[in-house]
Amino acid sequence: MDSKLKKNYVYNLLSQLLTIIIPVITTPYVSRVLGAKAIGDFGYTTGIVSYFCMIAMLGTANYAQREIARRHESKNEVSCIFFEILSIRIIMTLIVFICYLFFLNLPSWRCYRTLFSVQAISFVAWGFDISWLFQGLEQFKVTAIRNSIVKIVSTILILSLVKRESDLVLYTIIYCLSDLIGNITMWPSLKGNINKVCFSKLKLFCHFKGVWELFIPNIALQLYTVFDKTMLGSLVDTLQVGYYSQAEKIIKIILVAISSLFTVLLPRFSYLSNQHGDVEANRYFVSAIKYTYFMAIPLTIGCICVSDYFVPLFFGLGYDAVSPLMKILAVLFIVMSIEKLLGTILIAYSKQNIYTTSVVAASIVNITLNLMFILVFQLDAIGVAIASVIAEFVAMLIQLFNLPTCFHKYSVLMASKNYIIAGIGMAVTLMLINIVPMGAVGHLAVSILLGAAIYFSLLLIIKDDMVVNVLKDFIIKLRR
C-alpha cells in the first residue's frame, strides 16, 4: 500500500471511527430518553425518505468517483465532469422534492407528517453534497476533517437539547441539519481543484447511461437494506422496527470500521483499471481480503458471545429483544465486508451489470423471505434479520464468481485459514468466560480484553504475515 493510499485510509478511518464513537455515546442516551417506539418512528420515516434520496441521486456518487478517478490527471476534464454530475443531481433533487410535497399531503401519512416535514431538510443536504469529487480525487482529508467537526457539534447538541420522548422532532432536526452543514463546509475546498467551465459546453446526457446502470442496483440495494424497516412497520408495528433498528445500528456502526478501506480503494481500482494495472490491483485485492478476515471474524464471534450482556448495559431496560437480532446479524461482519469489496471492484472495472444482477437477486430473495417469515411464520424482526443475512450471502456469491479474471477469486477462501483458527481459539475462550459468574460490566471487559489477546497471540504463533508485518513496522517506529 503506497503512502498516499495509507494517508487516505487513515483519514477515512479516523472519520469512520468517529462515526462509531459518536453513536456509542449517543445511542444509550437516546435509547433511554426517546424509547423504542420513538426510535422506531424515526427509523421508519427515515427509511421512507431515503427512497426519495435514492431517486434524486440516481447512481451519480459511485459513477462520479469512478470517472473522476480515471481522469484525475486532467483538471479540465475533472471540472467538466464535476459540473455535469452536479447539474444532474440538482435537477433530479428539485424534481423529486416536488413529488415529495405531494407525498406529504397523502392522508395515510398524517400521523408522521411532522417528521416527514422536518426531513425535507435532507433534500437541501443532498443538493450540496460534493464528497464524491474529493473521493474521486483521492483527497479524503477534505471530507474527513469537516465531517468530523460537524459530527462532534451535532453530538453535543443532542446530549444538550434532547431530554424527553417529545423531543423526537428536535432530534430529527439536529440529525438532518448535521448532514446539510457537513456538506456545505466542503464547498470552500473546490478552489484549486476545479476550473471555470463554459456551461453551454456541458454534456449532461453523455452520463445518463453510466448513471442509469448504477441507479438500478441502488434501487435493489435500497429494497433489502431499508425496505426491511418499512415492511416491519407496515406488517407488524414500529416497536419491532425499533428493536431491529437498534440491532442493525450496532452492526452497521462496526461495519464502517472494516469497509472504510474499500471507500479509499474505489478510486484506486478505477485508476488501475484504466491503466491496465492488473497485477497491482490483484495485490491490493489480496491484502484487502486478509484485512477483512482479520477484522470481521473476531467481531462476529465477539458479537455473538457478548450480546446478552452488552444489550441491557448499552441500551437500557426494555431492549432484550435486540440481543438475538444482533447474534443473527453478526454474520454480516464477514459477508457484507467481502461483498462491499467485491462490489467496489465490479464498479471500478465497469462490471455494473454483474453488480446489478447480484443486488437485484438479493433484493428478490430478501423481500420473498421477509414476507414468508413475517406473514407465515410470524417471526417479526428475527425473520427480517435472517432474510437479510441470506440475501447478502446471495449477492456475495454472485459477485465472487463473476470477478474480472485478473483477480484471484480463490483468495477469498485461502486467505481465511489463519483467522478462522485464531477465531476458534477466541470463541472457546469466550465460552469459558461465560461459565464464570460476574457482573455485566466485568464480563464485557474481561471478554473483550482476553478475547482480543488470545486472537492476536494465536495469529502471532501461526506467524500470519499481515500481523507480523504490522508488528515489525510498529517496533521500527518505536525505535525511531
Please, could you describe this protein's structure?
It contains 20 helices and no strands. The model has no long low-confidence stretch (mean pLDDT 83). It is mainly α. It is globular and about 75 Å long.
What's this model, at a glance?
It is built from 20 helices and no strands. By secondary structure, the protein is mainly alpha-helical.
Count helical runs. 20
The residue-averaged pLDDT reads 83
Question: Which regions have little confidence, pLDDT < 50, spanning 5+ residues?
Answer: none
- The H/E string reads HHHHHHHHHHHHHHHHHHHH
Which oligomerization state do the chains in this entry correspond to? single chain
Strand content: under 5%
**Integer-rounded radius of gyration:** 23 Å
Helix content: over 70%
Characterize the biggest β-sheet.
Answer: none
**Ends: how far apart?**
21 Å
Mass-distribution shape: globular
Secondary-structure-based class equals mainly alpha
**Based on DSSP secondary structure assignment, what is the total number of beta strands?**
0
List the helices and strands and how they pair.
Layout: H1 3-57, H2 60-70, H3 75-104, H4 113-118, H5 121-128, H6 131-136, H7 140-161, H8 168-184, H9 208-225, H10 227-235, H11 238-275, H12 278-315, H13 322-329, H14 332-348, H15 352-376, H16 380-400, H17 411-414, H18 417-435, H19 440-462, H20 465-479
Helix pairs in contact: 1-3, 1-7, 1-9, 1-10, 1-11, 2-3, 2-9, 2-11, 3-5, 5-8, 7-8, 9-15, 10-11, 10-15, 11-12, 11-13, 11-14, 11-16, 12-13, 12-14, 12-18, 12-19, 13-16, 14-16, 15-16, 18-19
